[in-house]
Amino acid sequence: MRSRIVVALALAGWLAPQRAGANNFHPADPAHRWSFPADFRAHPGYRNEWWYFTGTLAAEDDPGRRLGFQLTFFRVGLAPSAPALPSAWATADAVMVHAAVTDVSRGTHLFSEVLWRAIPLLGGFPEAPDPVLAWARAPPGTDARWEVRMERGGFRLAMRDGAQGLALDLSLEPRKPPALQGPNGLSRKSGSEGYASLYVSLTRLETAGTIELDGRRLAVRGEAWMDRELGSSQLAPDQVGWDWWSLRLRDGRDLMLYVLRRKDGSASWRSGTLVDRLGRVKLLAPEEWSVRATGSWRSESSGAIYPSGWEVSVPGEAIRVALSPEVRAAENRSALVPGLFYWEGPVTAKDGRGEPAGEGYVELTGYGERSRPPL
What does pTM read for this prediction? Predict the structure, then answer.
């Protein structure tokens, strides 16, 4: 328990805005030479990176039942390299994992988390040829491992939390090539120098497996999205959080948009990409798209007021859709890192005639007093 408190305190300090290169961590390299599957593996020396999976699924044996899922593995750099000590506890990293399942049919949202030192007993980021990319021990009381591994050209996800009655075991196979988010995958976060990450997405992952809720195992099938991001900075000093949208449109295109916000709610930085049916990426200039919130939702747990419902428009690409959260109460609230809470949930898209136009996920961070973004 004491080691977890130390890691949590380190994370709490680390979650404050950091400039690239701080404490000798690597800055995002605009000339990075992308190589897959190598770049799906951990990149020691960067301050932070994550493997971020979200998706929407249908229960095959329960017609009409829809589920959303999130499973995110974070590598948190506590130091650029491990201290030179003859101990298995000498590590440069922490591993944090967030898992959530939104049961659309029942209007519920379950969140689970783990946070450990990256040491042999608790978690880590294995090197090749190990197929595991990241893993962590399940929460205390559950004898299991949470992990993301490469499998048959795709990924396998697994987690279990016995106390919550929650588990998932999913296989994901890409249907499009990796999409670089920004020129050569360099995703700027600010007009000021030094705020950027390396960012790539797999926007269409055919997904199948099982999800367990309340002791019942459901066979599920659907689609997912993976974000892979690494760097050593995140928010600039004038930024408090971000709004992020990932949409898989029914016409086969995929849209990613994000806005980094100032404290007064105004946009500090905006970025967008459109992936066509064949996987070709078009970078969208800020003036080429817009998002307008159409409602709000207040969390009774955190007191945060989040936007809820949006109109998304990309006029030059004939995209105009209305997004609705499938469950409004989809807030993730950490019990391990003080002030860490954010909204993450599945959304549906409808066109101007009110017809289904797609589905996706939305993440909202930095809302509410003393809120910290997830990384």
Answer: 0.93
